[in-house]
Amino acid sequence: MATVPETGYEEVTDSDLVLQGDLIGNLHCPFPKLPKDRPVKRGDAIDVLVDIVDPAVVLTQSCDLAQGSVDFVIVCSTIRHGSLSPERRESTKKNRVSNLHLLPTHPSATGPKERMVAQFDHLYFLPLVPLRQLAETQSKRLRLKPPFREHLSQRFGNYFARVALPETLFTDE
Questions:
Q1: H-helix or E-strand containing 105?
Q2: For residues 56 and 117, is the Cβ–Cβ distance under 8 A?
């Protein structure tokens, strides 16, 4: 592995080892198209759609991936930071948007170094073995370095650990 200068990434080459914080390009992510007007019952046929996520960010813990103790890997999609409204961009920079996490500058971005944003509310669960096979075919891919990887993990955990309280609890009487 070579460290990519002045970024929060290291470059991974010719490896099927997938770790938390890996960016996997051109990932085909299947998801069910569920009916909006009724619950799905056992035996119902459902359509499966495929999103192409480029890049996806691996969120499953590295220790589980390295030990092979999971069969499925959690990944999330990304969007360009510049595609957000100016207010949302500023809030994302300050970690004020719970479902979005600003990643370090991506070294291969064209033009101005466009930053990517991980979307914790756009998750996919993919089988580990095919994901490893795909990762191995990508001659060069990026992996978040510490402490950026740990920050991603903490933000993802916090997103799911949120507790909703009644708004009336915070009003002055």
A1: strand 100-105
A2: no
Residue 96 contacts residue 117 (beta carbons within 8 Å)? no
Would you say 100 and 116 are in contact if contact means Cβ atoms under 8 Å apart? no
Residues 6+ apart with CB under 8 A from 32: 46, 47, 48, 49
How far, CA to CA in Å, does 71 sit from each of 22, 43, 85, 94, 139? Answer: 17, 24, 37, 35, 24
How do 140-144 and 9-13 pair as beta strands? antiparallel
Note the residue count of the chain.
173
Q: Which residue type does 127 have?
A: P
Residue 98 phi/psi, 5-degree rounding, is -65, -30
CB 10 within 8 A of CB 143: yes
pLDDT tens-digit map of 50-65:
999 999 999 999 999 9
Q: What are the boundaries of each domain within the chain? A: 2-32+48-160
Task: Round to whole Å and give the CA distance between 171 and 146.
Answer: 40
pTM metric for this prediction: 0.87
